[in-house]
């Protein structure tokens, strides 16, 4: 579709065999441009559209008749943010002066937005003003991968720093914990304020030790003490403990149908995963609600997860932890498994609970999915390979 004027000129010379060959070549060449994955626009030196290839027309859901004679940024199918329009105008002016300009721009199409690497270049013509070609390569996927890579690099650096801090904390907490236990043995008859102080020291030391163990879990994968487990006793144990930690306004139900498969794992670690999910559900229901733990056998074929295993299992036991709480905002849903990321108020969350849960489940060969709707509740789905 590009350069229709050239096609019209060659069509008048159909009686000449050589010109017919040229015409056929031009048609094939422009058909190739239409099939290109790149978006291409043809402009005059003033930035007015002369043509566009089919990829660009499809992205904007516009036709040739709707675009020709209009400035590129004025076509409704291709919406440029205000700051990008200024850069586009500057690039067109520079290209009209013979320069080639390249920059990235967000463009909203008819149905979706994308990030494009745009190149604006002049095409010199004998005895005529140059035409301008704008080429747009969709780099959205590449930008997302770069963003993930940068995030992982930051987390890797943070992890290296954390390891050093954890070892220092361990050296500090060991004598504190020892002194706490020693004081209680030395003063068994202590009462009143002294007993209260001992309890405060013990409770907070234990909390600190637990936090250090959580952090260390990211450094050292514990695959010891994995054995075949039945799900029913595990959920029953979790339910009993959760009920002690939940207010009476939150009801707890468990559903374990007959025929549920067994899994291989570390009971204490899986207990920690489910307790964390349940306590998060409690925090999402400050005025009360329903918490449900259910299990089912599921078959997943051709699984495509971050595990990237050559021989991924297809039979899983899925543990569902559902609540009727406030839900998770979409803008933070993809960050909830990041270490140290938390939406809780200062002092109420470390941002390690869900990352630890994810890490434990991955070490068991499984994965976690989450489904959440604001003001309607959240479901965490824990998938663990079933014993065959």
Brief overview, please?
This protein folds into three domains: 103 residues, PAS domain (Beta-Lactamase, 2-Layer Sandwich), CATH 3.30.450; 77 residues; 159 residues, Histidine kinase-like ATPase, C-terminal domain (Heat Shock Protein 90, 2-Layer Sandwich).
Keywords:
388 residues; Beta-Lactamase; 11 helices; five-stranded mixed β-sheet; Heat Shock Protein 90; five-stranded antiparallel β-sheet; 12 strands
> SS-based structural class?
alpha+beta
Q: Please, what is the average pLDDT?
A: 79
User: Within the largest sheet, what's the order of strands?
Assistant: 2-1-5-4-3
Instruction: Write down the overall geometry.
Output: elongated
Structural summary, described in words:
The protein has helices spanning 4-11, 17-34, 54-60, 64-67, 82-96, 140-186, 193-219, 231-245, 267-283, 330-333, 353-363, and strands at 39-43, 49-52, 101-108, 113-125, 128-138, 227-229, 250-255, 263-265, 289-299, 315-323, 367-373, 377-385. The protein is built from eleven helices and twelve strands. The chain is α+β, with helices and mostly antiparallel strands and 388 residues long. It folds into three domains: 36-138, 2-Layer Sandwich (Beta-Lactamase), CATH 3.30.450; 143-219; 227-385, Heat Shock Protein 90 (2-Layer Sandwich). Residues 1-10, 18-25 and 303-310 have low confidence and may be disordered.
């Amino acid at each position: 579709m590009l350069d229709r004027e050239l096609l019209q000129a060659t069509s008048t010379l159909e009686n000449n065999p050589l010109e017919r060959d040229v015409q056929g070549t031009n048609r094939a060449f422009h058909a190739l441009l239409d099939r290109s994955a790149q978006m291409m626009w043809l402009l005059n030196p003033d930035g007015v559209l002369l043509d566009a290839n089919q990829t660009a027309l499809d992205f904007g859901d516009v036709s040739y008749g709707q675009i020709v004679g209009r400035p590129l940024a004025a076509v409704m199918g291709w919406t440029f943010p205000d700051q990008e329009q200024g850069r586009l105008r500057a690039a067109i002016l520079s290209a009209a002066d013979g320069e080639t300009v390249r920059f990235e721009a967000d463009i909203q199409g008819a149905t979706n937005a994308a990030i494009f690497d745009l190149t604006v270049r002049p095409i010199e013509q004998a005895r005529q003003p140059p035409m301008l070609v704008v080429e747009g390569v969709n780099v959205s996927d590449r930008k997302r991968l770069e963003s993930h890579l940068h995030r992982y690099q930051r987390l890797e650096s943070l992890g290296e720093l954390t390891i050093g801090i954890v070892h220092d904390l361990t050296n500090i907490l060991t004598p504190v914990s020892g002194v706490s236990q020693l004081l209680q043995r030395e003063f068994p008859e202590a009462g009143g304020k002294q007993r209260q102080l001992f309890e405060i020291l013990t409770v907070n030391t234990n909390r600190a030790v637990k936090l250090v163990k959580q952090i260390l879990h990211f450094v050292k994968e514990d695959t010891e003490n994995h054995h075949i487990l039945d799900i029913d006793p595990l959920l029953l144990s979790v339910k009993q403990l959760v009920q002690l930690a939940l207010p009476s306004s939150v009801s707890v139900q468990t559903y374990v149908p007959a025929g549920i498969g067994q899994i291989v794992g570390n009971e204490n670690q899986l207990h920690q995963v489910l307790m964390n999910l349940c306590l998060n559900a409690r925090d999402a229901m400050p005025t009360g609600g329903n918490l449900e733990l259910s299990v089912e056998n599921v078959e997943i074929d051709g699984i495509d997860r971050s595990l990237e295993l050559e021989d991924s299992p297809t039979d899983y036991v899925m543990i569902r932890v559902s609540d009727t709480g406030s839900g998770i905002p979409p803008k933070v849903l993809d960050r909830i498994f990041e270490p140290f990321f938390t939406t809780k108020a200062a002092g109420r969350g470390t941002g390690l609970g869900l990352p630890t849960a994810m890490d434990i489940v991955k070490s068991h060969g499984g994965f976690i999915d989450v489904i959440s709707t604001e003001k309607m509740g959240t479901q965490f789905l824990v998938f663990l390979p079933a014993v065959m």
